[in-house]
Specification:
The complex is a heterodimer of chains A (111) and B (114). Chain A has 111 residues and is mainly beta. Helix content of chain A is 0%, strand content 50%. In chain A, strands 2, 4, 5, 6, 9, 10 and 11 form a seven-stranded mixed β-sheet that branches. In chain A, strands 1-3-8-7 form a four-stranded antiparallel β-sheet, with no helix packed on it. In chain B, strands 2, 5, 6, 10, 11 and 12 form a six-stranded mixed β-sheet that branches. With 114 residues, chain B is mainly β. Classes of the chains: A mainly beta (111), B mainly beta (114).
Chain lengths: 111, 114
């Protein structure tokens, strides 16, 4: 199993550009989440999904959009990138909501 | 709301030294507690967990005991290795409706020198 995979690993955007961060898992997990990691702040929850077709907001959802059309994929869309969205983004998945498995992350810089 | 407080870092130790990383939490009820480790350039990996008071989680020589009376979950290792150099995050889990959410501490960077 590949576990949780994320692409790209690195990305540089200009202010106002849009892009999609990809996340996929091959463990047939129902639960998936997106976190962002900022220096000295730990990780904060952006959006989450409890199954295909069901998504909801976390604690820092503004400027991001998600969808979950399949169990495997959970892309995160930046609608109009801002410098405040410079961060490392982690996707995670879980089968029973207790133990979460994280992807390797995407490092995003917005100029 | 829930919160996790970790000791300030970074921490630098010599190989074979004893490690303690402090973690305290604030939460309603008795959440499950976790330590995650992030090696350079990688994502977070679950290191160990404890689900109820007095439980001891252990893995790879690391241990942490769930102390309800002091709301703490300190991470310890008797003899660190260079390969333990990483960022360590303490976290608790809360259940919100159909989902669960991890609340993380700020993380602490551990460097082990030969």
């Amino acid at each position: 199993n590949a576990g949780v995979t994320q692409t790209p690993k690195f990305q540089v955007l200009k202010t106002g550009q849009s892009m999609t961060l990809q996340c996929a898992q091959d463990m047939n997990h129902e639960y998936m989440s997106w976190y962002r990691q900022d220096p000295g702040m730990g990780l904060r929850l952006i959006h989450y999904s409890v199954g295909a077709g069901i998504t909801d907001q976390g604690e820092v959802p503004n400027g991001y959009n998600v969808s979950r059309s399949t169990t495997e994929d959970f892309p995160l869309r930046l609608l109009s990138a801002a410098p405040s969205q410079t961060s490392v983004y982690f996707c995670a998945s879980s089968s029973y909501r207790t133990v979460w498995y994280f992807g390797p992350g995407t490092r995003l810089t917005v100029l | 709301g829930n919160s996790v407080t970790q000791m300030e870092g970074p921490v630098t130790l010599s190989e074979e030294a004893f490690l303690t990383i402090n973690c305290t939490y604030t939460a309603t009820g008795y959440p499950s507690l976790f330590w995650y480790v992030q090696y350079p350039g990688e994502g977070l990996q679950l290191l160990l967990k404890a689900t109820k008071a007095d439980d001891k989680g252990s893995n790879k020589g690391f241990e942490a005991t769930y102390r309800k009376e002091t709301t703490s979950f300190h991470l310890e290792k008797g003899s660190v290795q260079v390969s333990d150099s990483a960022v360590y995050f303490c976290a608790l889990i809360s259940y919100t409706g159909a989902n669960s959410k991890l609340t993380f501490g700020k993380g602490i960077t551990l460097s082990v020198r030969p």
